[in-house]
Write the structure tokens for this entry.
Amino acid sequence: ARAGAAGEGEMTLDSRGPRVAVAGLVLAATTLVGIALKESYTDRAVIPVPGDVPTVGFGTTRHADGAPVKMGETTTPPRALVDLMRDADRFAQAVKRCAPVPMHPYEFSAYVSLAYNIGEGAFCKSTVARRLNAGDYQGACEAILMWDKVGGRTVRGLTLRRQAEYRECLGE
């Protein structure tokens, strides 16, 4: 059932209760903790998987000024947390911009985690975003599972992360 036209401030209903207009969704502390745990902390820039870009802290790939992280750079836990908060907020805004549809907070959290890991451009062009914008919420959650490869190869760690994000997206 639907309540209203799902415009700003309105909600859509399903069996799990209301979906919140995307403008009303906020980045939850649990989302930040979840991303931190999935990304793991490193005080020195690393290439997380072959073919990827250097990351430092909790998966940060770019500094506040937009400059890319370079191998050899270091960080501290407090700086890494500041970067995580900044980066997660950026990806939350990308999810809102690229999929401006009502969502449950747990769906939003799963999509922010995915976007944090795959990047803004990839998320915005993804089947996940297309299905969300088409109102196919179940299909959007399922599409998260597609993002477990690097260079065409399935990566076990990504498969496990995507399965966790999928379950979160379903509200489990």
Notes: The first strand starts at residue 11 and ends at 14. The beta strands are 11-14, 17-20, 42-46, 55-57, 149-150, 153-154. Helices lie at 29-39, 77-98, 105-118, 120-124, 127-133, 137-143, 156-169.
